[in-house]
Amino acid sequence: MKLFHKSIKRFLRAYPSLKLRINVNAARNEVDVVMPGLRYDDIDFTGQPDTWRIFDMVNRVENAAFFNEESFLKYDQLYKSNYISFVKACKYEAKSTFYETTTPKTPLDVSIKLADVGDTSFSTVSEVACGGDLKPSIRIKNLHTLVHLSERKKTPLPNWWKKEFEALLQENKATSLLNVLPQPKPLLTFRHEFAVPLHDTDFSAHTRCASYFRYFVENASLASHRGFYQNIKTSFHDFHIKKVIMLYVSPSCWGDSLVSETWEGEAPLTLHCMICKKDNPQEIVWYGEMDMFSEVFGMKF
Predict the structure, then answer these.
(1) How many Cβ atoms from other residues are within 10 Å of residue 210's Cβ?
(2) Which PANTHER family does the protein's record reference (predicted)?
(3) Quick check: 12 and 57 in contact, CB under 8 A?
(4) Is residue 263 classed as helix, strand or coil in its secondary structure?
(5) Close Cβ partners of 1 (under 8 Å, ≥ 6 residues apart)
(6) How far is CA 153 from the centre of its chain?
(7) pLDDT for 252-278, tens place per residue?
(8) CATH 1.10.10.10 holds for 2-166
(9) Rounded to 5, what percent of the chain is helix, strand, coil?
């Protein structure tokens, strides 16, 4: 458990002068945290929020809530029973108003709720509202798959947990499971080779979710800079991310040599990314699809 407590400490150290409180409701199926706002490092060189950092921040809040004293989804009891979960798939969505310079980025109200319960997995939905606005600007859905620590294999949710938390979901609630189907990779892609640094990994030295998101953005930035894309004539950074769906296929670790490849989709301003291990190109590690807004918001150079 000490390893996981580091996630809480790291989250709180980000804002040392503030006594942040992770508010978990009595049923343990909802979380609310008020963040002070974006920091300097959360803004990219265009003056806009750095999308992958926002994604990372929200996932850190969720991870910290799992191991809060009042544990979100009673995750501490799962861990004591030798279970842990990993994020199998994600969907990140942003409203265009989030990128408008008139939209205040402080404070940020982060709310997390249990959305779906399956046989071996559960889904959470995180929403971020800006400047006291009641309507969220960011929405992230994570599909968590349960794994038994000793066997390192997917395992059914414990009966007590499934019964308790299924009962909290609304009756006849329509489920919307994340079903990400990787598109076939074309012959011509933009390739970028790199090694996974330690700061891109979690407590077990596995590559974190947000790191793959960043690898996608970095590849797209280089590809547009070198004129690889047909539909992006200027720069990737002239547009803002509307939606990203992600699928985690197999793990990678600190020091692994990876290759990211991106290409354009059939729809305008749609990009695809596939990440594989350099020594085994047939082994897919991660896949993502990105849709961008056609409008340009904020500062432009």
Answers:
(1) 20
(2) ACYL-ACP THIOESTERASE
(3) no
(4) strand
(5) 67, 76, 79, 80
(6) 22
(7) 999 999 999 999 999 989 999 999 999
(8) no
(9) 25, 35, 40
Closest of 295, 39, 90 to residue 213, by C-alpha: 90
Return d(Cα 180, Cα 149) in angstroms, integer.
26
**pLDDT digits over 36-72, tens only?**
888 878 888 877 888 999 999 999 999 999 999 899 9
Do 248 and 292 touch, CB atoms closer than 8 A?
no
59 close to 209: Cβ distance less than 8 angstroms? yes
The pair of three-digit structure tokens given for residue 220, joined into one six-digit string: 């797209």
Query: What is the residue whose two structure tokens read 């940020």?
Result: 108
Residue 163's CB is within 10 A of a number of other CB atoms, namely 11
Residues in the chain with pLDDT values less than 70: 1-19, 171-177, 296-301
Match 């919307």 to its residue by tokens: 176
- Count the residues in the chain: 301
Domain with CATH 3.10.129.10 in the chain: 2-166, 190-292
State pTM to two decimals.
0.89
C-alpha closest to that of 118 among 146, 92, 141: 146
User: Could you give the CA distance from residue 196 to residue 176 in angstroms, rounded to a whole number?
Assistant: 33
131: amino acid identity, one letter: G
Contact status, residue 120 vs residue 107, Cβ threshold 8 Å: no
Tell me which of 3.10.129.10, 3.40.50.720, 3.40.50.300, 3.40.50.10470 is the CATH number of domain 190-292: 3.10.129.10
| Burial class (CB within 10 angstroms; exposed 0-12, middle 13-18, buried 19+) of 146 | buried
Structure token digits, residue 16: 């040392």
Amino acid 180: pLDDT:
82
